[in-house]
# Entry
Amino acid sequence: MHLNSIEGQLSIIRNKLSNKIVGIAGAGGLGSNAAIALVRTGIGKLIVVDHDKVEKSNLTRQYYFLDQIGKLKVEALEENIRRINPDIEYIGIPRKLIPGEMEKPFGKVDVVIEALDDAETKTRFIEEILEKLPDKPIIAASGTTGYGNLHRISTKQLGNLYICYDPEAKSCEEDILIASHVALMANWEADLAIEILLSEEI
Amino acid sequence: MITVNNKDIEWIEGETVEKLLKRLKYVFPVVVVKINGEIIPMKKYSTTIIPDNAEIDIIPIISGG
# Structure
């Protein structure tokens, strides 16, 4: 076999990732785009929690299509994912995360991705994961608005918490959400997840 | 003296996380705060007192996703 070739390296990576589970809280701009990147890279199983339905306004940045308007996001995302890899294990949970038990869907995942919208919900989710699943790596994003200024974005690591962070970004109530920028943060989260998952096996 | 995000600032005896955030003019309602390696949950901001020489990381969590 050509294990030393680039193709060989990719197949080793895909093989490792095929045994891994990623949990994603939220299937909006961050979650839908991160999920697609993970599926294309070869992740074995995804657990996605979101209670919203696809709206027309979501199409400016979320990985959905016109004919999916009105569908549950976790179902629309499954359709799109299966068009890339029909064999992936996928669990879509169409429920709101309830404070006090936000960690419940993620007990068996290898990495958690925070892909929520509202700042307070994001923070509460991060805290609950850190408190109740202390050994679980969690990746979050803070500062997804605007465009350009990519040099400001970096990964801040606080123990098991990794935050893709733009310190000068405004909140989504004060600034625009742009497809290129939101997808960049989503892919930043997905890339960190892959880095963590592959570093676990040396 | 304490350090916040690698910058030295004055230590004030008895200051809580809540008061420090106010002093540093954090405008976002929610932040992740870590003091000497330990993450402080939001509900403890008003009761957690910052020790001298503390190393603190503050990351605001901003809406949007």
In short: Chain B has one domain: 2-60. The longest helix of chain B spans residues 17-23. The domain at 2-60 of chain B is CATH 3.10.20.30 (Ubiquitin-like (UB roll)).
